[in-house]
Write a structure and sequence with these properties.
It contains 13 helices and 12 strands. The chain is an alpha/beta fold. The protein has 2 domains: about 30-145, Rossmann fold (3-Layer(aba) Sandwich), CATH 3.40.50.2300; about 150-314, Rossmann fold. The strands form 3 sheets. Strands 2-1-3-4-5 form a 5-stranded parallel beta sheet, with helices on both faces. Helix 12 (about 290-295) links the parallel strand 11 and strand 12 (about 300). Helix 8 (about 180-205) packs across helix 13 (about 305-314) and helix 10 packs parallel to helix 11. The longest helix has 23 residues, at about 150-170. The radius of gyration is 20 Å and the shape is globular.
Amino acid sequence: MAQGTCQFADDLNSSFKIFHELMTKKVNEILLVSSLYDACIMEEDGRLSERIIHEYRGLNLSKPPRITWVSSAEDALARLDSKAFDMVITMPRLADMDAFALGRKIKAKLPDLPVILMTHSALTSDFAPEHAHVRGIEKVFVWSGDTDILLALIKNVEDQLNVIHDTETAGVRTILFVEDSPIYASVLLPILYRAIVLQVQAVLSEGLNEEHRLLTMRARPKILYATSFEEAKHLFEQFEPYILGVVSDVRFPHNQDMDPDAGITLLTQIKKERFDIPLLLTSSEPSNRDKAEKIPAAFIDKNSPSLLSEGRSF
């Protein structure tokens, strides 16, 4: 009996061995760069570190990251010289330098360090998200007081860092998400991540201990986030064997111009190549539902009051 129990334990540990090799690159240290004014606004919405810890515990995720705050670009660059960070979040209003200039300086020193821009509202028309990387910024999100967006962007950075290794090592699945609007991305991305985490937790065996549950979470599907047709097409071709589904906006940049039907073109091409992949078209215009049906693809109205539940049901 004892020998059989030991063999069972050995087999179980062996089956979880591969999970130890997944998600090896984590976001443990975040540098937050903002004016005192922006910092106060974010603190009024709730202490960031405490709320992130609460979210991690509530979703049974691994160790939450630590946030270090500085009030100027000069201080940020000095901190990066003296300490290793896994991610930088900057607000647009800085006293000594704009966020894009800071991003460029960071990239000159640390080209692989993710730099995210967080705003309180939509950016002016002179900023094109698909060219963010040229200005030293990877992606742009909008802060609305909900820490779900912080959780989502942390997880998305981790997905970027680990997706190549994890797909090749264990065949971890991916979801392609295409959205060029920072406002809608800041709404939809958290919905996708929360839905993924909750669905994975729902199918976990009740017999697993805490360590094995955390390890299994490492194999959750990863989200590939694109803001243009070319980026989305590249990601699809690179990770096509591992893609579980595609969620796409209708209107986004294509061939460096804003294409009103880019999402229709993208999903139609994907449907021809992989008829078995579930497709979801998202739009703020209900009339695009007819275009989705012709692909065919599921459809969600971005302005729907039931957006959260509809997104989770996809």
